[in-house]
Structure formats: C-alpha cells, structure tokens
Design goal:
Elements lengths: L8 H9 L1 H9 L7 E2 H22 L9 H11 L4 E2 L6 H17 L7 E12 L8 E11 L4 E9 L5 H7 L1 H9 L6 E8 L6 E6 L3 H19 L26
Helix pairs in contact: 1-2, 3-4, 3-5, 4-5, 7-8
Bound molecules: iron/sulfur cluster.
Iron/sulfur cluster binds next to helix 2.
C-alpha cells in the first residue's frame, strides 16, 4: 500500500524527522540497506509485553511466556535485511538488555485495582482530516474499568527517561488514537522503559483537550500538504546514523 492510501503516526513522524527518508521509503519504496538494532529490540520487547497482557486478558498463566532473551535473539537472527549493530553493541548483550526491559515493564503495576485488559494490538482506522487519506493505527493496550471508561496505553523503549518536552513531542499519538476510537475522556498513557541493565519504567499521562486535537489536525494537515506537493527536503543530522538509506543518500552525515 503506498503512502497516498493511508497515513499512520509513524509515517507522520518519519516525514517530520526527514522528508527525504520518507520519500525513499514510501514514494520510491526503496528497501532499507539494514535493519536498525533499536527497531528489532523495540519490536521484540513490544511482542513479549503484548503477549504478557494478552494472557492476563484471557486468564492464561503468564509464567508460560517464552524465554525473553531467546525470543529476542531469534528476532535479531531473522531480521531482513540483516541487523546492523552499533559500535558498542553485541547480540548477547542486547538480548539480555531486552529481557530486563520486558521484566521491568511486565513487573510494573499498570492495572492496579482499577483496570482490566480489554485488547492488545487493537487496530483502529479512520479519517482525521477531510483532505488526507485515513489513518491506520495499532493500540498497544486497551484497558477498561468497572465504569466502562477506556484506557489507551502505548509502550516505548527509550534511551533515557522522558522529559516533559519528549512527552509533549509524542503525545499526539495518543490524541490520534482517541480520535480514531471516536472517544473522549479516555485515560491516555505511555509506559516507557529505558535501555539499561537496570531499566527504569515511567507511566506518563497525556492530557487530552480540544486544543490538543486541533494542534494534531494542524500538524497532519501541513505534513499531508508537503507529501501531496512532493516536498521532500533532506534533514541530515544524528538520524542519518540510523537511516537505512544512508548508503544512497547524498545528504547523509553518517
Ligand atoms: S541519510 Fe540522513 S538526510 Fe538522507 S534520508 Fe537518511 S536521515 Fe535523511
């Protein structure tokens, strides 16, 4: 499916980080020359944590979750194109790191006495603004309380603890999901975990408001105008080091 047929939060974020990378990926549809280790690690941690909450939802024993380090290792081995490790990274160390992150996330008391799991990796889709294609999103975790109120949670693996500025930068994702659910007053939160031997977990709430939705609409409107008009300037910088197009991009600073 091409970029003009649907949008997603990650597509919008890629356009904002580097429109040229967006062009390679979704317009030219050039394959990445490598898979970043951060992408594989983050995706494997998401899968394992999602499985844990899926078992809580269905009442299955959570102790049966597969060995996290082995599962993450298999994800590294099966990545296509092959994973490119950073200068200070090694496969075994990353597998252990990922296992510690899964343990920290699943050990966090996210549900408390209030919430039950209502869904894992829930697909939501719909239009956000009239002139752009519909959005497609996957909500990591949907919660419900005794009164029927909804909670929407997204897991994030991060280099360091989030500042208020980082929360602000990411909050549009949960505002978007709430809009796609056609809901208001959901409880929106990120559950972040740091990539460290002793990972730190943060549960951060995103405030919703009419102004937050308007800000999101405006941002998406400008991004869509850029895509539609063929505006794809390069944005070289630290992101080039993780970019799967660095070998072909004349602007790469990697
Ligand atoms: S190498 Fe850098 S400038 Fe080029 S597409 Fe990737 S992130 Fe953008």
């Amino acid at each position: 499916m091409g970029a003009c047929e649907y949008l997603s939060w990650s597509r919008v974020q890629l356009y904002l980080r580097c429109p040229r990378a967006f062009w390679y990926r979704y317009i030219e549809q050039v394959p990445n020359s490598f898979t970043s280790s951060a992408l594989v690690l983050g995706s494997a941690v998401h899968d394992l944590v999602g499985e844990h909450f899926g078992k809580l939802m269905t009442g299955e024993p959570t102790e049966d979750t597969p060995c996290a380090a082995e599962f993450i290792g298999a994800c590294f081995d099966e990545a296509d194109p092959a994973v490119k490790l950073g200068a200070k990274e090694d496969r075994g160390g990353l597998c252990n790191l990922g296992a510690a992150m899964v343990s920290a996330l699943t050990g966090h008391d996210l549900l408390g006495d209030t919430w039950s799991v209502a869904g894992v990796e829930e697909r939501v889709t719909g239009p956000l603004i009239d002139e752009a294609p519909p959005f497609v999103g996957y909500i990591d975790l949907m919660l419900v309380d005794d009164d029927g109120s909804l909670g929407v949670v997204d897991f994030k693996t991060t280099k360091s603890r989030w500042s208020s500025a980082t929360l602000r930068e990411n909050s549009g994702q949960l505002v978007l999901y709430e809009a796609l659910l056609d809901a208001t007053n959901t409880h929106r939160s990120f559950l972040t975990v740091t990539k460290a031997k002793a990972p730190k977990v943060q549960q951060l709430t995103v405030e919703g408001s009419e102004q937050a939705r308007e800000r999101l609409h405006e941002q998406v409107r400008h991004v869509w105008r850029g895509i539609e008009s063929g505006t794809f300037p390069a944005h070289p910088g630290w992101g080039c080091g993780y970019c799967g197009y660095q070998d072909r991009c004349p602007h790469s600073s990697a």
